[in-house]
Design goal:
Shape: flat
Oligomer: single chain
Structural class: mainly alpha
Distance between the termini: 88 Å
Radius of gyration: 27 Å
Order of helices and strands: HHHHH
Largest sheet: none
Length: 133
Amino acid sequence: MSAQSERQNTVVHHDTDDHDDAGAHHGSFKDYLIGFFLSAVLTAIPFWIVIYDVFRNPMVGAVVILIFAFVQIVVHMVYFLHLNSKSEGGWTVLALIFTSILVVITLAGSLWVMSHLDANMMPMSPAHMRSMP
């Protein structure tokens, strides 16, 4: 027998479903159903709020809808992305927190810049608007 065929005979293939997931939880059918139900409810309620004009003050309605959006993001992360403090040694949650901080800083800075631009822009009179090309 040649050395090459002997090496081929000693190779062991493991065809099992064991994957090295570092303790990651993949979720059960029940978890996916719970996530789907919560997502559907958290989508339907804001539609109901807008369609039936539930709140008299539009700002209150916008804040409530944003709260529902935040809760839905959390539901998606827990039930579909399986993010928790145990998976991958907690690094996924740490990366999520860092990303969230960057998004908040970017959005807050953008809104701040736009509000200052709006406050500091010179208003245009109708006569100036008519003479614009």
